[in-house]
Amino acid sequence: QVQLVESGGGLVQPGGSLRLSCAASGTIATIYAMGWYRRAPGKQRELVATLTSGGSTNYADSVKGRFIISRDSTKNTAYLQMNSLKPEDTAVYYCTADVVALTRAILLRGDYWGQGTQVTVSS
Length: 123
Description:
It is a single chain. The protein is mainly β and 123 residues long. The protein has strands spanning 3-7, 10-12, 18-25, 28-39, 46-52, 57-59, 67-72, 77-82, 91-103, 106-113, 117-121. The radius of gyration is 14 Å and the shape is elongated.
C-alpha cells in the first residue's frame, strides 16, 4: 500500500517563503513522476508543478519563477519550494505520484494522492 504524506503547510505573510514536503512510502519499485496540485476556495483543482524521473519539470504559469519542485530519490520525497508568496496562493496543496508499486501482491503502475496540507498567505 502506497502512502503519500504532505507536511510543511501553514500560515505565512505575503512575500514570504514556505517549503512543502511529500514523503512516499510502501513497496515502490519505480517512481515515474511526482507533482503538486492545489485547490483554492471556490475554484477547481489546478496543476502547480510536476517532476519526472528524467528531470523534466512543468509549472503553472501563475507560479513560474516563484516555485521550484525537486526530489530526493534516496528518500522518495518530493519538495515544493514556494517563494514570493501571494494571497492568491492560499489553497490546500496535494501531492501526487505516478509509481509502480506492490498492490495486492502484484506490481502495478498507478497514481496516488496525499491528504493535502493547508497553505494560507495572509498578513
